[in-house]
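Box 3.1. Reading complex inputs
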Amino acid sequence: MATTIERPPSPEGGAPQPPQRDYTRGRERPVGGFELWMWLFMRISGIMLLVLALGHTLIMHLPAGGVDRVDFGFVAARWGSPFWRTWDWMLLTLALIHGINGLRNITLDYVRKPGVRFAANMVFYVLGFTLFVLGSVIVVTFDPNEWGPVA
Amino acid sequence: MATRLRKKQKDDFGSPYLGHEGQWSWIFHRITGVAVILFLFAHVVDTAVIGWGPEAYDRVTEAYKNPAVHVLELGLVLAVLFHSVNGMKITLIDFFPSLAGHIKVVGRTTALVFAVSAVAVTLIMGKQIIDLL
């Protein structure tokens, strides 16, 4: 968005031109406001997701058996621990916001028509919020004993 | 709309790096990011099915247990790995902009870290897929 990134006006006074980049002096960053907060959020959540998401991926997929181990009993045992419930809920929340904001950034780059851009972003927000509510309810309220004693 | 849109130009698409260091990692960062969030959408739903009991959940997880899906699974792990390693590179450069002056070293180190861990992950998961056949 032209309003969030400093761009010098063209000499003829037309539309702002992309700056001449000096690649050795760092990367563009939003000047302030919401976009700067999201810029910061992406980096902080990225560091947290390095542990939460990469850790989750390696723990679930690399040990012998991989995801073939996963069934009702596996999750029941895993979510018997508040540690893993907290881990999974934080992963759910941060990954959804991080990912939805990534999709928003991509639509800002590639979707030019304001109406289409707005519609696309609304789809992402509604989908993200719905999945956040669904995932949160399940990870907090899941009780394996509802279906009889777990082996 | 009151605002007139600028006509799309050829260079409005693709990487803003125009062949400079970081062009390819920028493109792969986007592709892997989109791939991972699309999987996450499905993964939240498939996990939520556990709220409907063992019979429903075990039917869902059964779908993940076949060799073709395991190949996709390897792709997912590599995508998460690339996005993680490259994301840390971006974060380091943005928090310590002087690193941008050494972009070739930083970029090649990142590529090396990804390559080594990607080979390790592929060997481990690849062996498990082959063992299933």
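In summary: The mean pLDDT of chain A is 87.
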